[in-house]
Amino acid sequence: MRRSMHRFPRGRQTVAMAPLRPDPPLATAVVHGATGYVGGHLVRALLADGTVVLAVGRSASRLEALRESAGSDGSRLVTVVADVSTDEGARQVAQRLDEHGVVQAAFAAIGGWWEGPHLVDLDTPTWSALLTSHLTAHFLAARATVPRLDPEGSAYVAFNGIATLQPEAGSGPVSVTGAGQSMLLDVLRAEDGRSDVRYHELCVVNPVVDVGQAVHATEAVVEITDVVAAAVTLARSGDSRTHRQELGRL
Question: Considering the entire predicted model, what is its pTM?
Answer without folding.
Answer: 0.89
